[in-house]
Amino acid sequence: MTSGDKAVSQFGGNVTVSVQYTPKAGEDTNAVVIYYINAEGKAETVSNCKYDPATGTGDGKFSPEAKLTRGQFLVMIMRAYGISADENAKDNFSDAGNTYYTDYLATAKKLGLSAGVGDNKFAPEKEMTRQEMFTLLYNTLKQIGGLPEGTTERTLTSYNDANDIASWAPEAIKQFVATGTISGNGGKLAPTGSATRAETAQILYNLMTQSYEQKRYELRSFPGLFRDFSISNGCSVLSWMI
């Protein structure tokens, strides 16, 4: 960005950038990603972005109740947090196929973001459950050192269906409940329910907002330690209690 003939790389506040985009026929809108051209003329992924639901799924629709597959969600969060797919990875899940999520699955396996569903399979076309969504998000944020901070008085025992949580999911769900990232609905977490586009948009928005507020706190409290500030691109999402 420039102002006249001067390059601008730092701002005195929050900057919101909106880009109009019309998906092509058949395009997976859950995997939309934004790139920018850096000073060396190379394309880099813009991380910590949130997809504006106004863009929707085509024909002016967001389809809030549409379900997400495991493959779609994995690609979405890896792109959102700037984790590039390793095109040269040798090891992969046996059902990774040869499609848009293939290299992302290999990278997720390599980094330990997911161990799959057993028998060296990831089940990328299977609808994702809420506890699978929370666990993949937790593993991804832990990998990049971006787990949310802060505490609330809520615990898993605050919810009527806590016993429905699978043995591999409590650590992730406990973290997100304790930090207020998720709050449930009607005293329930619905861990085995399918994850919808609306729920996914809301939890990503919550995480991005928490991350932005933490950066603001760090800048205010320790101004001498920070020379650059990552800009969080703001956008609206469909409100949903998750």
Structure description:
It is built from five helices and four strands. Helix 1 runs parallel beside helix 3 and helix 3 packs across helix 4. Strand 3 and strand 4 form a beta hairpin. Helix content is 29%, strand content 4%. The C terminus is likely disordered. The strands form two sheets. A two-stranded antiparallel ribbon has the order 1-2. With 242 residues, the protein is mainly alpha-helical. It is globular and about 60 Å long.
Q: What's the β-strand tally?
A: 4
Taken from the alpha-carbon principal axes, the silhouette is: globular
Distance between the termini: 37 Å
| Fraction of helical residues | 25-40%
Q: What is the H-and-E element order?
A: EEEEHHHHH
What proportion strand?
Answer: under 5%
| Low-confidence segments | 217-242
**What's the gyration radius in Å?**
19 Å
**Count of discrete alpha- or pi-helical segments spanning 4 or more residues:** 5
pLDDT averaged residue by residue = 77
**Largest sheet, spatial ordering of strands:** 1-2
Q: How would you sum up the major sheet?
A: 2 strands, antiparallel
Helical/strand content category:
mainly alpha
